[in-house]
Amino acid sequence: MAGGNDLGGISLSDTGGMMTERRKMKKPENVWFLLGALAVLAMGIPYLILGKDAIFVYHDQLDGEVIAYLLQARHLWDGSGILPEFMNGAARTALTMPAPACVLLYRLLPAETALACMQVAGSFVGYVGMFLLLWWAAEDSEILSGRKGTVGFLAMMVGCMYAYLPFLPVYGLSQYGLPMLLYCVLRLWERDRSIRDRLLYYAYVVFFSVNSSLVLSGFAVLGIWAVWEIIAALRRKYSAAQGIAWILLLLTYLLENGALFLQIFGVGESTVSHKAEYALTAVSFWEQWKTNLLQGGQHSVDYHGWILLIAVFTVIAVIRRRAVDSKRIFRSLAISCGCIVFIATAAALWDSGIGVSLRSGWGALKGFQANRVLWLSPCLWYFALGCCLLLLLRQLCEKRCVRNVILFTVTMILTVTTAEQILLQSNLKPNLQKTVNREYGAMSFRDYYAVDVLDQVQEYIYDNFGERPEDYRVVSLGIDPAAALYHGFYCLDGYSNNYSLEYKHRFREIIAPELAKSEYLEDNFDHWGNRCYLFSAECPGYYTIQKGGFYFQNYEIDTERLRELGGTYLLSAAYIDHSENTGLEPVREEAFETEDSYYRIYLYRIMEK
């Protein structure tokens, strides 16, 4: 199995076009691979059935990133540096797409279909990548070469587990694409790869970069990969092919993020980012280190608790019986575990007192979330799990004693337990429940974006006042501004991690009366401020208000400042009592809604004084 061009019978061309080897997979592993692929692709069925009734995580997805894709897609060929609908014409850098190439999906398809495609495609790439990684790891084992069917089953199982992790699909391949990237890097290390093979690996490197985010995981990939190259050079095992791939990744990211870099370095008509006012709060290094190691970071939770225990069992069981034909597996396990600890430590240092003190004077860059390096951990955890299973399988094949049988059985039970937990937390579960029971209560795509309801509002304004969306500006209360942006309204508010500091100050004047009533809201906006929203002290922290008996009893904003900023209408998800006292005139008494709508929208006009 150690032959240079032999992937143990697996052809990259048979697994999504990445591989060029022409040898066909032998039947057992072929069957397992295809079964796993079908299991991953099947997650797209509920999305097709549900359409706009599909359920997606809305935090950091429907409220922000999807809108970035939609607006960038609408103005894809404009050649303008602004997004006219967003925050009174904010710069394009205010809404940076996590996977730039995916903007084409939002140009060609409805948003819910584009997002579902990102979910299925991302999961499929994650599955294929993890399957190939584990097959690669098993290549140098003579004993496992006679157990290809079992190796294929284990690779399929771990690959499916990784594919079903509840990553946010809106981030493209930033997480799902890491196993395939690692596989390509490892293959480029092999000096006997053909030119055609290397070109395909390079192609994936570029494909990964245009479908992933530099600021979310790309910087971590580049950094760790650079360390790899330096160590290889010091050991005189440097691979020029790997170095070229690293340069390709770097250059592609630089081209994608050119406008952002120009803003950061103050080139041209760049503005000061609101990130300059971020307030950094230090956390305990050891507490954060334990959290990073045992739980993971934001959007990178991977349910690896049992995997950690499996890794400990495996090391104890095989460390004294390492065989020559399993060095690659054992080395992969050791390096993966070492990288996991390093990543957890680096992220904890970034958030600790030391990290906060170092970056406090970095201006807007102090808000850079280097702790996102934790996004690499899930790939390493599941690669480590696969290596553990392969090592224990090899030991069981070598000596079928009671001890080895029990150890392998217990490990498989823990793995299945982890798989069950993943399925229960996966993005597929709520959509299956919604498919079976249309009354399932989770907020759907249709609910979140107030489909049909905001259409009524837009039509009413045009029919009664002759105004098109570009003729007026709106703000939203109790309904995320993303809903209005989805429908083509021109909004003064929005969710952005990089908008003008001057605009933040002007918007603050509008919401100052409500901020003064709530220390929580004031601290949140002044020291963070990514949500440039109409807040209410009567429901702090709630950005969506479902229709019902709630109404605003004492809502106050500075409507004169709102009108100066260009505000014309206010969309409210709840009735505002005595609205005229704060300069808001009800356009009509009855609300806009449908029988099944999540929202009931009241329309107010900003009064002139």
Question: What features would you describe in this structure?
Answer:
By secondary structure, the chain is mainly alpha-helical. Helices cover 55% and strands 5% of the residues. It is built from 27 helices and ten strands. The strands form four sheets. A four-stranded mixed beta sheet has the order 3-7-10-9. Strands 1-2 form a two-stranded antiparallel sheet. Helix 6 (111-138) packs parallel to helix 10 (178-189) and helix 12 runs antiparallel to helix 13. It is elongated. The N and C termini lie far apart (81 Å). Residues 1-25 have low confidence and may be disordered.
Structural class: mainly alpha
Q: What gross morphology would you assign?
A: elongated
Order of strands across the biggest sheet?
Answer: 3-7-10-9
Oligomer: single chain
Give a quick precis of the structure.
55% of the residues lie in helices and 5% in strands. The protein has helices spanning 27-41, 44-50, 58-62, 65-74, 103-108, 111-138, 142-145, 148-163, 173-176, 178-189, 195-210, 214-234, 240-256, 258-264, 285-294, 305-318, 327-351, 353-359, 377-398, 402-425, 428-436, 445-448, 453-465, 481-486, 501-515, 519-527, 559-564, and strands at 82-83, 90-91, 474-477, 494-495, 531-532, 551-552, 569-572, 575-576, 584-586, 602-606.
